[in-house]
Amino acid sequence: RTTMKSLRFISAEAFVSNAAFARKSLSAVAHDLFPLLFKASYLLEQGEVIHDLVENWPLFDFNMGKLLGATLDYQEDLSHRTCSVCLESCLTGLRDYVLNQSSPYMKKLKVVDLTGIKDVEVQFCKCKKTMGRWARTQLLSKLCSELLVYLQQAQCNPGTFEISINVLIDLFVTERNYELVVQALLKKCSCPLKICCVAFRSDNLTLQKFFYIIKLTDPSLLRKLEIVHNVHLEMEHLEILFNSIHFPLLMSLTLPARTFNVRRFTVTDEQMLSNIGEKMGEMTQLTELSMSFSILTGRIQKLLSPLKTPLKMLDVSNCSLNHADMAYLANSFHANHLEALDLSGHDMPELYPSTFFKLLSHCSSVLRSLTLEDCNIQDTHVNMLILGLSPCQKLQEFKFIGNPLSSQALKHLFTFLCELPMLKNVEFPVPRDCYPVGITYPIDDASLCRFDHQKYERVAEELNLILLQANREDVKASTPLFGSYDAAVQETNNELGAYLIKSFKETLEKFTTSFNKMN
Fold this sequence. Notes:
13-stranded parallel beta sheet; 42% helix
């Protein structure tokens, strides 16, 4: 599919395609053409031109999402192109904007917004090298530190020190880039480029480092907080976090696995849980909450009832919910507002079929994403599932990997899914009849790939044919065996892998020491 370009955009492409000419001629370009030239340069990956455009930016703001998004001159949205050449040129251009004393333009720039950049799985840029969120955090922090060192050493124009630009960014901090980011945040006051953290993700950090850096980010501005994987945050630490720091603008909160475990609760823990619920209730903007792989049996109401604002996104996958939890969710004021819901890891059809379908009917008018992985949905439940999904006319994404469904049941389900007008993405399981007879669900990792791959390919083709015959080529159907694509995990998997090996080695050493002592 080709996107129409206006004559203005075609002219802009022609202008920037000759980098040497474009760079030489920039001083004669009208201010209002800079955004047009920027998008054309980004499309053609003209790094040097991008650098010079940013270095001489004549406008008050520089918003990546708007500049790369759909415009009248060129409808295609380029904000999902995290091209390394383009982004590095952008950020170094920003540094040189501060240092460039001979620019013919007055320095008006006050706000740079980098939050509109979207990290996706498939990249269309020619260089095929991406700069993800972690690398953007790393580079911006490095440039801020270098800028300060240079300003302290060089004889700069006094006007340079008066430059103050707020750079809005989604930070991603792990052990490997922690020191660099801390230094940049500590020196924020004296640096002309001021990092303003809008979203913060931390992984592979000690609790001490997490608590230190989160205070440096200015939590009063934070809209999204993700504490994931290798940050060992438990309930008592979460209570300390909420008691010591206020998050007035927080809209989205993701907590690591095993933050809560009600199986070892004491009276004190019950009080702690109530306090955490009350603190979340004070976050009046909070509409997205993810608490997967915690044990929350019978405590969902205690945690969610103090919230003043209805949740739009809730992930309680693998949280060992019971009937009371599901009944609370189905009858709560959140139910009518849920746009994204993940209930994976719960035996829906057996444990609470009626309350689950009640919940589904309440959120059906707004629901956009539903995830029901490893929910023991079998062939006998498909008609009931179709009945429950029928009112969900806004559903865009349905994920149900890991359910024991036959090829025949999947074909029946796909025939129905074609009727959901907004549907764009389906993640379906390997059919049960592709696995050896007697396979038990949920399937362990060792057996996950031991299926008849040829038979699976045939079934997948048939399912895609069902979509094709219904004119639904717009629906992407896939079976990501080891979970959906996660840009953040993908970018840092080497560091996380090394951390896991180190943890395993330490555990092994402790075990060996204990064993030797026993002997």
